[in-house]
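Example 3.2
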Amino acid sequence: MEQLLPYFKALGDENRIKIVGLLLEREHCVCELMEQLNLSQSTVSHHVKILKRAGMLDERRSGTWNYYSLNKSGFAQVQSLFEDRLFMPVSKAVFRECPSFKKNC
């Protein structure tokens, strides 16, 4: 379960969810994210840093600008961890504890 903590932290903030939503459309630089979210540069940079640390963002440098996009393999890893560590144990427990499991509970 400890492996899931960085992902819960990364996705546990409304502004980071909004950043992910914007990056679903296309890559953005911090200045574009600032404008879209009406946040300061330091706040956006902080949120981007947390998402990057969780492996959810890629960074591309072009001149003096850094552009951020979603790291698809990072999200695939998150999905895999959620399925293996969270959803599978829960579904197994539900079926094991269902009193009428043999009756298609």
